[in-house]
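From the methods appendix. Each design record in this collection lists the tokenized structure first, followed by the designed amino acid sequence. Records were kept in a plain field format so they could be parsed without special tools. The example shown here is representative of the layout used throughout.

RECORD:
FOLD TOKENS (283 positions):
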């Protein structure tokens, strides 16, 4: 059996490889990287590295030769539909028997700036006939590091998501779930909604207060004042508007999801919220 992890030099892919090595022999693991130089450390650790780029269909065909099970980590936004089509086409052509794909929470029911590419890719995989599991990841707590660090400096956690909840969890926990599914040591359904316990940004501010020992006030701002607050903190306007876009989809309820899938796949509880905040900030 051969297990391939795409995006192997990225943060999520690196965590997956670490967990996967505890589940299957390292000799059966293949790491896909865009260049061999970026994956030099993986080769030193005994992981087979193959070079392939989502934009280069021929490189993917070669990289997927002899692969049985694959973790398909979604690419960066931009030309994602065409690139993802290359991945699925190459997997089908080379006889990959199973794909675990990192998708978006509740992807079949929400409509936002992040979900459409995932809906498209899920459709590609379904039509390919390849056995699959969609790992519908909610939200990495690490994605909030900028807001959390600004809050530590100012004493105010600024947000614009109202009382909507998010199923935050640590990236390494999403990676552990992905490794479990990829290893295939137990059956997994075609869809896993991987969401942590639901928390609001006010609760995040409270967790930060407890984790840091500092008094942190939560400030729910409208979009204009949120962007202004980010600018005052040194965030470029484009970056501030990008963060606001995420805040708006959260406010719309797109990450509000209750599911027991995460802990069921892991076989253990997720990291307690306060401890997870400490881990993200290295407190």
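DESIGN:
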């Amino acid at each position: 059996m051969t297990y391939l992890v795409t995006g192997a030099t990225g943060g999520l892919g690196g965590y997956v490889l670490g967990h996967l090595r505890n589940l299957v022999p390292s000799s059966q693991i293949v790491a896909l990287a865009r260049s061999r130089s970026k994956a030099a450390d993986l080769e030193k650790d005994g992981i087979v590295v193959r070079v392939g780029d989502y934009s280069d269909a021929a490189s993917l065909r070669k990289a997927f030769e002899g692969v049985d099970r694959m973790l398909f980590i979604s690419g960066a936004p931009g030309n994602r539909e065409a690139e993802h089509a290359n991945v699925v086409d190459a997997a089908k052509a080379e006889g990959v028997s199973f794909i675990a794909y990192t998708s978006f929470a509740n992807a079949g029911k929400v409509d936002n700036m992040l979900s459409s590419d995932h809906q498209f890719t899920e459709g590609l995989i379904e039509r390919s006939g390849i056995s699959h599991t969609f790992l519908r990841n909610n939200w990495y707590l690490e994605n909030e590091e900028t807001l959390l660090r600004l809050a530590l400096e100012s004493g105010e956690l600024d947000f614009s998501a109202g009382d909507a909840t998010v199923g935050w969890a640590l990236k390494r926990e999403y990676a552990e779930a992905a490794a479990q599914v990829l290893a295939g040591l137990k059956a997994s359904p075609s869809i896993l909604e991987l969401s942590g316990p639901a928390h609001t940004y006010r609760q995040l501010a409270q967790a930060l207060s407890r984790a840091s020992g500092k008094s942190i006030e939560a400030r729910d701002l409208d979009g204009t004042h949120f962007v202004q607050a980010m600018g005052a903190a040194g965030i470029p306007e484009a970056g501030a508007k990008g963060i606001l876009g995420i805040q708006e989809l959260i406010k719309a309820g797109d990450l509000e999801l209750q599911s027991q899938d995460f802990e069921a796949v892991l076989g253990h509880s997720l990291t307690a919220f306060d401890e997870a905040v400490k881990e993200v900030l290295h407190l």
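APPENDIX NOTE: The longest strand covers residues 98-104.
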